Amino acid sequence: MNSSTSSSDAAAWRGFVATFFGTLAALTVGLLAAVALLDPYDRGAFGEPHRGTPEAAPRVADASRVRDPAFDAAVIGNSHIQLVDPAALSRATGFHFVSLAVPGTGPREQLAILDAFLRHHGEGTRALALGLDPAWCTEDPALPMTNPFPFWLYDPSPAAYLGGLMRFAALEQAARRVGFLLGLAAPARRDGYWNYAAGRTPSFAAPARAEPAGPAGEVIDDARRFPALDRLGERLAHLPGDARVALVRPPVHASALPPPASTPARAEAACLRATERLAARHAGTILVDLRRGDPGAADDAQWFDDGHYGEPVARRVEAAIAAALPIMGTTPNAQ
Q1: Which domains does the chain have, with CATH numbers?
Q2: Which of 56, 149, 231, 300 is surrounded by the most beta carbons within 10 Å?
Q3: Under-70 pLDDT residues of the chain
Q4: β-bridge mates for residue 127, sequence order
């Protein structure tokens, strides 16, 4: 083989490689553009109108619900507040509630959801019910997570959304989106309510306690810092002046409460004090502390486990939240 033939073959190979990768890049960009135009998660990153979603799993579906113009109020938290029916709160208060509760999440994820809701509703935000379970009492400023979470779906940046679409799951979601837009798939419940207790019977077997639960009774260390509550306070400071907020400490089974005078009891007392201060600093904010004293707290038949209650308890939680919020059209009392 002479040198001219070798050079010609090398040039042909380079041309083939360039064409191959150029075509691959064009196909990738074209596919990404097609998926983005479909807006498979109804994220609205490029100004698309809200159309809803057939997706039931709130971790994904809430990216659509945070921008739904039908709502001016939200329930945010995890499975410890998931059974609170937003329709019941809407009927009781006159606000229009959507449930943005996502099981298995903690403060970092819930703050991202809250940010997205406030970004889309702004001055139209009328009320919030925020479930502050023990995860909010972390003293770790990193706000540790226990499960993966798609922050890119809630990020304000369209570029973050595009980057998130570059995965096989987005293609699957795009296919489902086509069926939904063609009317082949029914939408999920618009207000996000997902009743995990439906068709199930609570039957918790509580462990024996060495001593009864009760208040800690020690001097509370007010120097302890709870960074999740601090970050929540930053959000509350920018709410509309007439917005109403219920900071809800969800009920737990009596067996979940720490023994009095224990180290966990002292930490819980300090966190409660910090939450009380948070509520007191922000007009229209009230603490709804249901963690202790629920009439069914020791009734195993009302609980799935020590932190997940059945529907009778959920109805009491709804009533307590509704009682803390004004009827639409009235003026909230400042703290």
Answers
A1: 57-156+191-324 (3.40.50.1110)
A2: 149
A3: 1-7, 9-37, 209-219, 327-335
A4: 73, 244
